[in-house]
Specification:
By secondary structure, the protein is α/β, with parallel strands linked by helices. The protein is 22% helix and 26% strand. The chain has one domain: Class I glutamine amidotransferase (GATase) domain (Rossmann fold). It starts with a strand and ends with a helix.
């Protein structure tokens, strides 16, 4: 499959994402500028990625301005046709702001920027080993109303939850106070994915961590 990585003014994890996908995962990657509209080279078997960073400086709300970019209008249409879309960190915020995913990302519980390795596990999993993945955000506290949370649980849309190193879903393993320890979700159709942790920063032996590879393979069935 092909991956398109959208670059906004203020993106700062686009190179990390491109490096991980192209060199570590051996996938075809096309860079996409936010002012362009044409994504006709992608089929619904491919994936558009919204990387982390501070799109448009996060001057209004994180991701609130980026959702109006010409490229995002094409991405929304692509997702509505069944194309795969992944948003990481600021990209997750953009997906929520654009309505492709439910809920919002709020200021971290302790009102501080968090940058460290955390542990996550598949949202519906009772077992399995936890994955170590970095986070780097100030507004990563996922929140949704009770009705939305009930639907997320019912339709198994919570793809990752924060946990401790033993896989226990506890408040101590939650770096930002996200409700229900939610680290990532998908839409009901399971073609749009958003997560705060950065799997692209955990794909290389040089970094001493390849747990991010497992995340990409889990989401996209990569070989």
């Amino acid at each position: 499959m092909k991956f398109g990585v959208v670059i906004f003014p203020g993106s700062n994890c686009d190179r990390d994402m491109i490096e991980a996908l192209r060199n570590d995962l051996k996938q075809e990657v096309i860079e996409l500028w936010h002012k362009d509209k044409d994504i006709s080279m992608f089929t619904t078997d491919d994936c558009i990625v919204l990387p982390g960073g501070f799109s448009y400086g996060d001057y209004l709300r994180c991701g609130a301005i980026a959702k109006f970019s010409p490229m995002m209008q094409s991405v929304i249409e692509f997702a509505n046709r069944g194309g795969k879309v992944l948003g990481v960190c600021n990209g997750f915020q953009i997906l929520c702001e654009s309505g492709l995913l439910p809920g919002v990302l709020l200021r971290n519980e302790k009102q501080q920027f968090v940058c460290k390795n955390v542990f996550i596990k598949e949202g519906a999993s009772e077992g399995g080993s936890p994955l170590k993945v970095p986070v780097a955000h100030g507004e990563g506290r996922y929140f949704a109303d009770d009705k939305t949370l009930e639907e997320l649980e019912m339709h198994r849309q919570i793809i990752y939850r924060y946990c401790d190193e033993d896989g226990n879903v506890t408040h101590g393993g939650n770096p930002n106070g996200a409700i229900h320890n939610i680290a990532g979700i998908c839409n009901k159709e399971r073609n749009v994915f958003g997560m705060m942790p950065h799997p692209e920063r955990a794909c290389s032996t040089a970094l001493g961590n390849e747990d991010g590879v497992r995340i990409f393979c889990h989401l996209f069935q990569l070989n």
